[in-house]
Amino acid sequence: MSRLFGSVRARATLAATLVVAVALVAAGAAVLLSLRSNLLGEAGTQAERSARDVATELAVGTPYADLSLDVDDRPVQVVDEDGTLVAASDDLERITGTGVETVEPRPAASPDGTGDAGDTDDADDDDDAGEPLEAGEIGERTTVSDGSATIDGDTEDYRFAAVPVKTEDRGRLTVYAGAPLSAEHGAVNTALTVMLIGFPVLLAVVGWVTWLVTRRALRPVEGIRREMAAITASEDLARRVPVPGTHDEVARLASTTNETLAALQTSVERQRRFVADASHELRSPIASLRTQLEVAAAHPELLDLDGAVEDTVRLQRLAADLLLLARLDAGERPADARVDLAALAREEAGGRAGVSVREDAGAAGGVTVAGSRGQLGRVLANLLDNAQRHARSAVEVSVRRDGDLAVVGVADDGEGVPEADRERIFERFVRLDAARSRDDGGAGLGLAIARDVAVRHGGTLTVHDAPAGGALFELRLPAA
């Protein structure tokens, strides 16, 4: 059960069904209330019409015995101002809801049989008890109430309307007439029965349709899940998940997943190449050092101490470069210290033959950036090593401000870098002249480290043609 409701399809189906159920219940209740209200209003109108018909007869002096009290077999009562029943429908056996439960009229007989023939002045004095009426006038106010009545053995619910009327010879009278509520009860019960039968069927249809629609909508997601599971099991990052042609959120999810897989594949391949290249680069100095030590062990007089030291230093530098690259790849954040690039350039250029430093005299307060002094010094050292390796005679370092940027340029007078190779030289273990670089101690990591450090500091490192015809490397960093 928990697995079922852990499904998106099941939750979507349940949610849609519940929402529709709440909406149906609310709409059904509103319909029933509106239907009942309309039918009750119609019954009240019918009851009022019947009561006013009788009141009209009373207003013109019709005797009680001649009143139309048995029209449509509806209960009618005529009550005087003392609450005495003076006229009622034939076959009326019981009545409730009018305030007068007697069903046998007891009119005060007059010599002509028309009712009370006494003085009506007292009745006129009592007009203040209700709506003031003149003789022969029917009241405008109608009081409505619900009750029941039994006529000729049949008991039904009725809506009663009470209409006052003032007569000349019988004083103030009240006519109660009822309209049956059987139509209202029947219509409401029928509507309720239809709802009780139809709502569950409609909910079942909604749930079924939602289940089918969500299954169709989530089918690509299941395909993506299966393919990702297969990629995880096979460790084949060259595979891609299927992209549906629906151009919706699922299609965008599949496209993003494929982009992530491509980036992961590139990263893994880069890491594999890095490990392979590092192993290759480490093998050479280690093999050379081992050979020298083995020769020295067998023939101490042949020990090349300078060569062993050179190989050891080369191995140490390569290990340091690999460690720094690993830290950069791990996302290590640079320190947030202020670094004077002009002072750093003078420090790195000091002791290097043929290297000069030119500062921007117009930069007030110096050229400073925020970052790691050690890493930025490593960038300048690598650029200077590269420039000296390719320069014919001179290397110039320039430090200046360019708007909000600090710019450090390292230019040499060598052969320069071909335009087709100006991005490739920043890749790891790339050497345009591999044999010469290896002899000089380069492993093809210096420029790659320099660009990675520049990017970590929010800057860029590019190469252009130098004014002297060689290569110009420009390091641009946000100025502090």
Short overview:
By secondary structure, the protein is α+β, with helices and mostly antiparallel strands.
Q: Name the strands of the widest sheet in spatial order.
A: 2-1-6-5-4-3
Q: If you compute it from the alpha carbons, what radius of gyration comes out, rounded to the nearest whole angstrom?
A: 53 Å
Helical residue percent band: 40-55%
User: Helix count?
Assistant: 10
The largest β sheet comes out as: 6 strands, antiparallel
Tally of separate domains: 3
Mean pLDDT across residues: 84
- Structural class category: alpha+beta
SS strand fraction: 15-25%
Poorly predicted residue ranges: 109-129, 434-439
Shape: rod-shaped
Q: Write the element-wise H/E pattern from the N-terminal end onward.
A: HHEEEHEEEHHHEHEEHEEHHEE
Euclidean distance between termini CA atoms? 61 Å
By DSSP, the count of extended strands is: 13
